[in-house]
Amino acid sequence: MPLQNRVDPFGAIHAVPDRGLFTGNRGIIHDPGTRTLLKKRWALRAWIICVCEFRNVQRIPMGRNRPGGPGEPDRAGWTELFFLDEVTALAAGHRPCFYCRRERAKDFVDRFGEAFKIAEPRAPQLDQRLHKERLASGGNLVPTTAAQLSALPEGTMVTDGAGCYALRGGAALRWSFAGYDKPMAFAKLSGRAIGVLTPVATLAVLRLGYRPVWHPSAPA
């Protein structure tokens, strides 16, 4: 059975076989004895996106990855979550990690500062804003229409209630844990109630030129 650590664009966590390109975390939210999630879905406001391989570090997903004290068992460490790609992780309200993706994280935070006129932006400022905006921590969908989708930046994710779509190249790509379907014209979503999943702060960063990493199934 797959572990319950795969994240969808809503920020919900599932147990599915497909792992995706990125990992990340929201703090410790699992029981290392059973390798299952606790009731809480975050322990920190800093929800980050990490690379799956870094400095040859080996971890047991949802295991005991933090050394205990003398004579004590190892402890949980952070809970490994997985995302299809960076587009998915951003929609769920995560942002790049300063430890394993430092240059990307700095670029992201700098663009956040530019968007909101913050002279010296810091990651905690971004985390505080994202925590209010992302759906999984109490934020709301921002309503839009099919006619307005072309005004949103590439890498935005939206939902029509039945599915999720990533916007790229003037088209909508239906999302799944395994990858994206072929491009679909925005007009095919006409008449549906559409909501923007990607947080407002992240949309501002995308508008200023941040380019998220896409899964290979997404047509260039």
Low-confidence stretches: none
Shape: globular
Q: Pairing-aware structural class of the strands and helices?
A: alpha+beta
Question: What summary fits the major beta sheet?
Answer: 6 strands, antiparallel
The residue-averaged pLDDT reads 96
Number of helices: 4
Verbal overview:
The protein is an alpha+beta fold. 18% of the residues lie in helices and 20% in strands. It is built from four helices and 14 strands. The strands form four sheets. A six-stranded antiparallel β-sheet has the order 9-14-10-11-12-13. It is globular. The mean pLDDT is 96.
What secondary-structure arrangement, pairings included, does this model have?
Blueprint (H helix, E strand, L loop, with lengths): L5 E2 L5 E2 L7 E4 L4 E2 L4 E2 L10 E4 L29 E3 L2 H6 L3 E2 L5 H14 L7 H11 L8 E3 L12 E3 L4 E5 L2 E6 L2 E2 L13 E3 L3 H8 L13
Parallel strand pairs: 6-8
Antiparallel strand pairs: 1-2, 3-6, 3-7, 4-5, 9-14, 10-11, 10-14, 11-12, 12-13
Helix pairs in contact: 2-4
